[in-house]
Amino acid sequence: MTSFFVESYGSWQSLAQAERINGLLQQARFNQSFDLESTDITIISLTQVTLSLEEELYEKLDLIKKKFPHQLVIIVGCFPHHHREKLKLYPLISSHQIHRIVEVVEERLSRNIIKVIERNELPALDLPKVRQNKIIEIIPITLGCVSDCIWCSERKIIGEIQSYSQDEIVGVAQKAINQGVKELLLSSHDAAAYGKDLNLTLVDLLSSLISLPGEFQILIERVYPVSVSNLLSFQDQLATIFQHSKMFQFLSLPIFATSNNILQQMSLTYSIEDLISFLKYFRFAIPNLTISTNIITGFPAESQEEFWHTLEFMRKINPDITKMSIFTTPSKSPLAKLPSLEATEKQRRYKVLADVAHNTSILQNERWKNWQGTIVIDQQGEIPGEWIGHNQSYKPIIIKGNFKLGNIVSVKVMKTTDTIIQAEVIRILPEL
User: Rounded distance, CA 246 to CA 114, Å?
Assistant: First the structure.
């Protein structure tokens, strides 16, 4: 029996895509493999577009070519659409066409290379799937992007935003809950833009989901700063929904830059004042909110004053998680023509920002010391005997013992660092 191995890169959407590819191919009686060494076909799922992921992809393709020259490779996701010429020797399939994966695989086995990269339809949401975690359901709520950043080619690659219908999302969610799922992860490049094409909002969708029967919690992958006007227009309703017991109180909102001048250079049509206003409001309304953000430093012509604005932002907002990077842009971007900072200065600013982010995370996690409450075990730790569960603020809490996925455990936090929260077990609660 022909075997296949699916490797996913990037976002939850890539993982959701991989789960559906596994389901479709197993339904077609292909045999799932779990490593590169023992497979006939490798399928790479990639739904984010970054220079680092692009480099990682080409390194993986070179590795397969050298170590497994007879292995067949298929690339799935938004990335292939923009790199058709560079990937002309590989079958390509867009995220909008994953329901045709069996067709593409069978054609490749017949020595035909086809490219199915149209973006004119949404694949059915309720495709066969093999969950990587039996208590977590990843539900893509949109495909595409609403932003048009001058430094990023993502919108050109993945297309305009397309939202799944509320009924389809709710139907998939209810089915998953009935199957024992405890966490619904709503995947989107920008969840705040959900429904723009359907005359709906994220509030409409979340209101329907939290009304479903069952014991579960909802996590939103990301809201994008370009949709801050949307967020401000329904921030009261959104804050009320986030206070519901079925919502994880977790907000991932990339900031990128804290200077309006730099935002304008990037063709980002929002102001840092609006973002700060929204984040402060949400912090006030939801005191235990976990905020995760992305910040870039080393922009072309970024002044010392603008860099200090970034540090001031960190002190005002105190994000729990800060993912940092040094600015890079494709050579064809207009920003590549602007004068660049010296490499040593970029590294210096990155280190200063990293130190501030590290200390901020330490302080935010220290607030949880001696906290007592319940967590749901949703993954095994890296060390045998360790398990990880999340509380309502989606803080990952490590405990030791003999547990299983889905256990509800009462704990007391004993130790915290910038990235780790460790707790002792009080008792295992009966399943509801």
Answer: 44
